[in-house]
Specification:
Chain lengths: ~260, ~240, ~425
Amino acid sequence: MLKILKYSFFDLIRSKWSYVYFLFYLVISSSLLYLSGDISKVIISLMNIILILVPLIASIFGVMYYYNSREFTELLLAQPIKRTNIFLGQYIGLAVSLSSSLLFGLGIPFLIYGIFRSAEIWNFIILIVTGVFLTFIFSAISFLVALKNENRLKGFGIVIFLWMFMAIIYDGLFLLSLIVFKEYPLETISLTLSMLNPIDLSRILILLKLDISALMGYTGAVFRKFFGTDTGLLLSTLILVMWTVLPVWAIVRVSGRKNF
Amino acid sequence: MSHIIQIANLYKSFGKTKVLQGIDLNFEESKISVVLGPNGSGKTTLIKSILGMVIPESGSIKVMGTEIQNQWAYRENISYLPQIANFPANLTVQELVNMITDLRGKAARDESELINDFGLGPFMKIRLTNLSGGTKQKVNILLAFMYDSPILMLDEPTNGLDPVALIRLKALINRKKAEGRSFLITTHIMQLVEELADEIVFILEGLVYFKGTVTSLKKTFDEPDIEKAIAKILLKNNVV
Amino acid sequence: MNRPNGYSGIWGLQMGLLLLMTFYSFFCAAGTVKVDQNGKVKTIQEALAMSGSGDTILVYGGNYSEGTILIDKPLTLIGIDRPIIDGHDRDSDIIIIASDSVTLEGFTIQNAGTSYIKDLAGIRVRRKNNFVIRNNHLINTMFGIYLEKANDGKIVDNQVIGQAIEEVSSGNGIHAWYCKNLFISGNTIVSHRDGIYFEFVESSQLVDNISRNNLRYGLHFMFSNNDEYTNNLFEKNGAGVAVMFSKNINMYQNTFANNWGSASYGLLLKEIYDARIEENIFDGNTMGIKVDGSTRVTYHNNSFENNGWAIKFVGGSYDNKINNNNFISNSFDLVLESARNNNTINGNYWSSYTGYDLDKNGIGDIPFRPVKLFSYIVSRTPESMVLLRSLFIDIIDFSERVRPMFTPENVMDHAPLMNKVVY
């Protein structure tokens, strides 16, 4: 698997899209740092970008990479290599190369700016960690969608819809249902609903760092336990891990049964 | 005479299309077996089943005596030349060769000789995306032959080859056969069948309709050449 | 905040005393009584009985348990090597100052006890003036220093450490009721009900104090006018400071930090008039300032950073000026029902401002609306807080900003600054 991972990774980081993706983060974070000069403000702006853009790019790259490497995959399938390892290797190669674009694109300007001497270091780390999680989750989801759909157009359509649903529509329906059912106890439900969407979940992980003082303004005991102790951090991280593992497990299952 | 590949009662369908409907077939060692059949008859599915790329619904496949279901290590003994040659676009030919060598974990044997024979020397440092179809097919041949595997499965090996390369390929196949390698080839070029085949397997609608030598095919259907014999099979079964 | 180093302070004091005593022994030795457990006078009560007005009592190190000590003459009591006066939880006051012009310094006063009925105190001053309480440690005394109708006093450099667990059985660190002209400076007050409590206290000053981990408020004003507090630190209290039903309170250069909770505020204002709130720092509070009725209050040069809400107004507030403040990285900057009540918001720096400054005059060219639609949604459906900073919320906030439908249209800063206010 490591060998496949290595080849997928080097294949990808040599593609121009990886450079574009890397340069995008490089330009955006350095210009934000240059323009505002306030690290915490830049981190908040980047948070919005990461929560939306990382899932989108990971989704698109995921299906694109899968469909484009279809023949290469067949070449690999004829080699004495375990099937699962081929797909896991490709998936991890993809996720790692996207994550490194993110990591270096954001990391280099912040490093030059002196993030390690800043009090914002933890916020920055949380930002990177959630970005990496989202990359792994959404490239796994899109890989899975591509595995299940031979039709490229359909595959693209499905991942774009999934992205739009999780990034915007879900929260709209979420808010609407909170307003409609506001007479009922909603604490646990609203936390559960946030956990069910990896984008919301990552956002909460960031809120725990940036907006804890506002979150503590709510009286409910469940909220207070969740946000006020390490419970929230642990639970969110755990569920993010589950969100990563679940589609990967599905990739293993689906790819094991698929005909090429 | 031992059977290098044994296929028993193999069934496979994609959705409602029944592709293989109970194939019983043995391929013999050190022979060139050519699988013939019209498009959609199940040739490629059969080859892919042997490679484990298609997972059959029922039946058994044994390669060199071992059942292949859920196995992967047996592919060490097989080299495969796929019909469509498409490789990771950003790699050079040399890198691809190195990669396959690395993945198989075993050094290539006849690499430089093959590169010479097919005139690939000048292309080794060129990215695969910039190669012509013919050159890609040569790379394909290089990859299939450089391991000297006991079994070689070639799916339309002559696609896009120039006459010189074609002659070299045929010579290569013959030489390897003489060295004891077993071949499983699909092709549409009847001349190639005539020249190479020790044995012909004719598949139609997922079933084996004929298995035997070129001579016995001609004899059975009382036709002077393969093409006509095949046409006869097709007409008899109302396929055309 | 620059506080004198305790060690050198005590050392200086001892040097001074040495000189003073040498002087006394030559001329008027009669004015000084020494209390020492190995000496002639063994208890403070004895010394109080034998000394006259204006005398100095020097109490040397040791543990003195003598019930309630009543000081009824104008005396100076000085502890040397920090003698301990222990109440042994007998549920009574430990020291009562019952004379004008008493100075008490250098003692540790501990263990008054706990009561649900009586207000026990470490030091109580009742209807007397001109007292100085300096450099004492009050430990576990329910109420630390309790002033009733006591004026013109100085309370300086004391440490008041309580063990408050619940509000009903705990007292305030420094409690003042009907007092005038108090000067309270350099004290550290920890773990009481209120750190400092003022009720009907006039013309008093609070400077350089630290109030921390108190159950209710770090500092609490009730019906108190014309007071000023400057350069104090309020941290991790139930709420930082509460100013209620008071007029003319000046609040300068204080720090309100890390007050978290559903009823936690850096500063709580209730029905106050003519106050000035300037150059304070509000950092990491659930609510920086909660305002429930403020009139003619100036909010000027303050910094609000990392608060849940920087300023939240509820109830009628009139003629307030919110100018030249920094609003940085707060979840919500401002909640204000309407600007019809003649409040002005002008020339503040808002980190969430996304406008531009084409004429390069340091002032954004388009006005800023600090009130978000989402803050209204959250006040109606608090659980929706988990959607904070989601793209959907940003979109509805943005569209509301472009064309206000739910938030007051006229609450806006017409001259938002491009850079932080420096003062």
